[in-house]
Amino acid sequence: MAESANAEVGASVFIGLGANLGDRKATLRTALASIDQLPGTKVLRVSPLYGSAPVDAGGPDYLNAVAELATTQAPQALLQALQTIEKSAGRERPYRNAPRTLDLDILWFGEQVIDTPELTVPHPRMTERAFVLRPLADLVPERVEAALLQAVASQDIHPQEGPTWADQVDGG
Ligand code: A4P
Ligand code: MG
What we know:
It is a single chain. The protein is 25% helix and 28% strand. The protein is of the alpha+beta class. Strands 1, 2, 3, 4, 5, 6 and 9 form a 7-stranded antiparallel sheet that branches. A hairpin with a 3-residue loop joins strand 1 and strand 2. 34% of the residues are buried. The model has no long low-confidence stretch (mean pLDDT 92). Magnesium ion binds next to strand 6.
């Protein structure tokens, strides 16, 4: 029960969203709408939107955010569903960390620890990255240690819009 956001809809899951190609904000909003429509899944909360310079990668600046979901899906099934959403946003994978229209990473899946070839949870690189830790700390400050935030304080990231960015329905 401790790992349920809502007993009726399942585990509390945190997803990192990123985009650095195309109409980044529109793509992230569409992705959230698609996630919300997955069977047994609801988007509970969305962080503010951040702009960030690529970390360990090249290309244009990213938009990044974190969303909290409740889902009854199993971790592997959710990963597959997220990859389908990435694909429908035109995601291509020419090489590791290539610029992308959409990246959806599972950060936490309830309290689960998963280590399979397809899925590692908690996400192995999340604690090194301000573009994950900052929006995560906006949603769950009690779960992000100050020392971790301090360690990524030099990374180039800036708040772009408040959490209502995800609610807008026009092209703005
Ligand atoms: N995979 C394993 N664990 C997970 C998980 N927890 N969530 C596997 C999602 N996928 C997971 O991912 C490669 C494989 O990781 C998947 O097939 C899945 O089975 P991918 O999305 O195809 O490739 P990728 O994006 O190149 O790798 P990954 O791991 O997503 O890269 P990172 O480490 O997340 O880095 N800079 C800024 N400012 N903002 C960004 O969003 N993103 C990256 C990507 C680099 N620099 C960035 C940003
Ligand atoms: Mg990814």
